[in-house]
Amino acid sequence: MVNPFHLAFPVNDLAAARTFYGTVLGCTEGRSTEAWIDFDLYGHQIVTHLIPDACRGRGEGGAGAVDGHNVPIPHFGVVLDMEDWKALAERVRSHGIPFGMEPQIRFEGLPGEQATMFFCDPAGNALEFKAFANMQQLFAKQ
């Protein structure tokens, strides 16, 4: 088994975070208080902490150029298998969440070819979810 990662990050509304991570993304909720909520994000522990002044609005973070696209920095997410990635893309779309980068294939025909999508949570935290047809390409060099 791969060791799960732990990530804690700020949100400005715990009810909105609960709806987004629990309902939209389908994460199981773990422990919680009036100040934070644990979620299981594909076997990894993420923790939303209520810090109203620490959140930025959508698009206010930096961006890095990757494969001809500006990607939000910072961002986090999970590398999924292709079936789970497609199901998540449809789930996000069905909830009306706008994509910062529509689901697409990047680096097509190159080492590291991947499916990717970006979107933000209600607090403006950017998320990226990827999938590889061949998981051996995850760390492939150009």
Automatic annotation (TrEMBL):
InterPro entries: Glyas_Bleomycin-R_OHBP_Dase, Glyas_Fos-R_dOase_dom, VOC_core
Pfam families in UniProt: Glyoxalase
Top-level taxon: Bacteria
Gene3D superfamilies, sorted: 2,3-Dihydroxybiphenyl 1,2-Dioxygenase, domain 1
The VOC domain, residue ranges: 3-132
Residues passing through the membrane, by range: none
PROSITE patterns xref list: VOC (PS51819)
Name assigned to this protein: Glyoxalase
Organism listed in the record: Gluconobacter kanchanaburiensis NBRC 103587
